[in-house]
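Can you give me the bound-state structure? Components:
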Amino acid sequence: MIVGTLAAIFALAMLAPSLHRVLGRATGYVLALGPLVGFIYYLTQMTATASGETTSVAWTWAESLGVEFSFRVDSLSTLFALLVTGVGTAIVLYANSYLDGHPKRGRFFGYLMGFMGSMLGLVLADDLILLFIFWELTSITSYLLIGFDHEREKARKSALQALVVTGLGGLSMLAGMILLGQIAGTFSVSGIIENHHTLTESPLTLAAMILVLGGAFTKSAQFPFHFWLPNAMEAPSPVSAYLHSSTMVKAGVYLVARLNPAFMDAPAWQWALSCFGGATMLIGAYLATRQTYFKKVLAYTTVSSLGIMVMLIGLGAPQAAAAYILAHALFKGALFLVAGIVDHEAGVKDTEQMGGLFGKMPVTAMVAIISGLSMAGMVPLLGFVAKELLLKGSLHAHGGPHEIAWLWPTISTIAGAFMGVAGLQAGLRPFFMARTAEGKYPKTPHEAPPPMLLGPVVLTGLTLVGGLFPALFANQLINGTAASIAGGHDVELVKLSAIYLTTHPSTALLLSGVALVGAAALFALRRPWRAITAPLDRVTTAIGCERIYHLLFGGTVGPVSLATVQTKVLQSGYLRVYVQITVLTALALAGGLLLWQGDLTDSVSQAIPQFGDIPWTELLFEAVLVGMICVAAVASTQMRGRLSTIAVLGVVGYCSAIIFVLFGAPDVAMTQFAVETLTVIIFVLVVYHLPRFAVYSTRMGKLLDASVGAAFGLMMAAFVVSSFAISADDGISWFYNHHAMPNAPGEHAAYGRNLINVILVDFRALDTMGEIAVLGLAAVGVYTLLKLRQERPRTGEVA
Amino acid sequence: MNSIILRTATRFMLPLLILFSIVVLLRGHNQPGGGFVGGLLATSAFALYAMAFGVPAMQRILRVPLTTYIAVGLGIALASGMPGLIEGEPFLYGMWTSFDLAGFGTLKVGTPFLFDIGVYITVLGVCLLMLLTLAEES
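Here's the bound-state model for the whole set.
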């Protein structure tokens, strides 16, 4: 059933464009059935997983690599699966109306369902490699979704930025996962957690941890990678609501939570999570207070919330982390959808230019108010409960650095106040206060259609229910998830009811009050606050993390970046430069290795005596051939015409082929002859019509080329000489010799006496298969490139 | 090139060269040769024809587009891997069978041989396609 839901969603993703052609406006209703069925299934699993049961399925996949196609459902997976499918259902219905009449709606649904399947696979996978594949699939599908309005440059750039940042992180994560698999001896996530004592013993664990965190931190937009998330708001609102609040950006949090039992005893893990998470929380929340665009406010608070979740896991407060994951998904999902509705129905994006919308769209307003207050951490909503747990968690940190334990409640309170400002900005500002901009709204504001309201209303309802009766969630989801995150360690569970928490005074409640008062004050003074902090904003734009990104990869800020510089150097368009770079790289890598590790004098002294055994007649043959090769090679540098140069080079090739014949490699010789002949033919065809060389190399250029060529030649010679030192009598030649022909009647063998051919078509046939496929592609590439150039109108001739 | 000698010679050489390339292909499993070299030899034969009679004439005797050759070659190579799969062995597993040709001895046929034919056709298609594109370009 686990795989069934996954397969169904992927199937719907592929069918979506065709379905849209047939069904038109009803597509969304059909597509929503997929996640809905999944949601109901995981609801039925909830009770079982909460009590610690797990379901798993596994198929052998790449057996020799130890990679399995395996899935496992525990409470943590269930929580995320419910978010993916539940919010997913709402998003599909919402998007159906939001993109009504959009010409590419079918394609959009294809991307969206594809993303949904990838995300679901990611949270269910029990194999690190499988998890990585789904992880990258979410990056790719989100790239397509963020850049959905690909005609706008900003959308394309933001999509690429998200892909570059999360993609680089993903590669780092892959390296970390392979290391982890090597250390633990298995790629199975549950297996690694079971054997986590092997991790504490290995010296490689720290490296693996850092690499994996590279993936987790980029994906969930932790500082200093936080900048891509607000830019990703170029995506359509349903995408922002789904990817950038409820699901994709939480993938990093999920990974951290998933691997927490394996690493949780390591101080480095606790340090990294709590410090980076705390920094992200503070920076995100601060930046959110400076924003006025509806979606940007939400984007920065999302960054902050992701920081909170990571920090809480690092501080050893799994219950708080689980509660925050759920609370955040509910209020932020709803708020993003509201942002979309307001933009869709009123045509305004800036909250400061909204106002008094309560009368025009009361349902939307109610949703926004409740969710906004939940974000601000107001009683009696789920956001309040989550914030109380956050403060409790930061007051009684179990993990992380104890020396600076006072820091966590302090920054949590400050971030709480900032979040409060953002909650009021998003929840109240658009609906009650007066409009600052004069005149009418671009569109006449009215209530959104019911399918668009369904999602936000349900999510907000859950926020309310969660605050009043959190035991419902706690028993079924949160406590079980906390246990999963803690990996069997006892979790200190706190009673979750909002009423209980408010009526039982504690330090956390006091801090909560401070945060709320601070939030109200700061909201009232938000304009002076923005003016005061504006200079700081300019500083971060000048030297911030995004600036570094642009310096590395080029883009919107400046024309000069590492990417443009290296492209100019490496891809100059001159063939000779390409050849030089390739040769010099080979020289540096292989030649360096040879000098560093090889013992050349030893090899030479081994090789020299072997000359004495060769009869002088054979040596004469070889000497004549080598002499011809040398003469031809030198002559080729002196030729003035193209054809003569090629003909002389042909001499070099044919002579080499004869050397192959002399040394008993007729196969290679034959191929060499054929290739030489064809090369000459091709060159004749191409070069025949070209004029004589017009520009000759300068003296300096010639000197450079000669030295590079000589160095490369010397290196190759050194390789050949040092190869004498290697005994060829190893297992592989024995294997080929032994299996080429049957040794006993009835034995299976390759039935060929020509070993080279047998290797090509039997032992290593898959390689040959790959090679001819590449050849085919290359031919088609050449064909397309040259044909396209021929068909382009030649404007130059007209002028 | 408009040369009577080249044209006349080519007319006789083409069938011989093709035949030779096929012999090289067939003997490849036991003696020097094989699909790759055979394909290159066949390519040279057609290139010679193209030089003597022009590219359109060469395309006429090839009958179908060169991209089809590539596709067919790759398809044959791929298909030669299937019998192994069907028998529950790895992809591209070598399987052999022999036919009794009355009076001419036995003929042994195997999937590696089929694979080699695929390589031959692919190499022929690839090289000729590149050659032809370059020839038309100039």
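A couple of observations. The interface with chain B takes residues 666-667, 670-671, 674-675, 677-678, 681-682, 685-686, 688-690, 748, 750-754, 756-758, 760-762, 765-766, 768-769, 772-773, 775-776, 778-780, 782-783, 786-787, 789-790 of chain A (CB under 8 Å). The two ends of chain A are 68 Å apart (CA to CA).
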